[in-house]
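Hey, can you fold this?
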Amino acid sequence: MRRVLSTSARGEVSDEERTPARESRETLRTEFPFELPRGYVDDDGTVHRSGVMRLATARDELIPLRDDRVRENAAYLSVVLIARVVSRIGTVDDIHPGVIEDLFASDLAFLQDFYRRINAEGHTRAAVTCPSCQENFAVDLAGGGRPGES
């Protein structure tokens, strides 16, 4: 057993005992790595492909609705939203709408689908069919490898 200090709703601190069974709570995965199909090209011409997206919060989905760019053009919502939840692309960690605007269309489409998968479906797997043998299988979009690689 282990002693743990906890705070009640009233702010009172209590010293309670925790058993290993009570400590083994399920952890929630909140960050998901990805590989962009083409990659973000920065001002120096460096291509960045790997990145990290976190789960969206209610605030992430509400704040963009107050953005004037979104009010003028509803299609801009996904740019602002994706910029809020992508924490890194390659070595670029200052992700803002301007970075997302500079992505290739295929990379933006990938991130929109990735966002939907991790926030609505809770996973990054996609069902695919082999074009040669017609075998159905699942691939993990967050896997980092290219299709066909082990």
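Oh, and this one too while you're at it.
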Amino acid sequence: MTPGARRALDAASALFYDRGIHAVGVDLIAAEAGVTKKTLYDRFGSKEQIVVEYLAARDERWLAFLAPYVENATTPRARVLAVFDASRDWAGVNSAKGCSMVNAHAEISDPAHPAYQVITGQKAWMLALFTGLARDIAPRRAAKLGRTLMLLHEGALVAHGLRIFPDAIGRARDDAAAVLREASRPTAAADEKRR
């Protein structure tokens, strides 16, 4: 990526997150980046492609941020809670307005938009992550537990962005810990075997 294209993507990323995708035009991105519209179109082809690259780059940064939290956790339960810890730390620095994917989906709900697959793909990946981690805790109920954990996580991201109450992600982490304790109880395991 050329320096001008990099500046354009950085400017677009900040503007899209702060102001919203539909509120930001190519003229504003070019002006903020100090490049011409021609540079933008030569590199990206369209505003839609800039949106795709903004979301894909943000997702790559999130995955790189998350990985050491999960990898350094030593138990199945700790790995699940590490996702919430990573999200809280990430949100404190990168997501004052909530999850960029959720925010983007509020503006892009058409499956034909090229960014739609990035948005839904990221959430599908998160569900797969929680389900995989849940498998180590309650193998027969991994799908249900994974969905529950994802609902707690995603709800916390939305509540964080809306500033509904303080430390939404930390509270969701506490609720996830309670769900995991319940899923790990011997009676839960016995009930699971009977099913």
